[in-house]
Amino acid sequence: MHLEIIDGKIWVQRDDTEDGVTYDLEEAGILKDKIVLGFHPPNVRQHTGYAVA
Q1: In-domain check, residue 40
Q2: What is the pTM of this model?
Q3: From 30's CA, which of 9, 12, 20, 43 has a CA 20 to 30 Å away?
């Protein structure tokens, strides 16, 4: 897994975990609008329910 904090948001650049690290981040209280799925291209991110950038 590769995570970065960019402009106050957590960017998931790579996630090879079994269940996905985003679920753990949400359980820890991080809102979806603060999580960016960086491994998706920008035109796909808008459909994920997470932050676009």
Answers
A1: yes
A2: 0.91
A3: 43
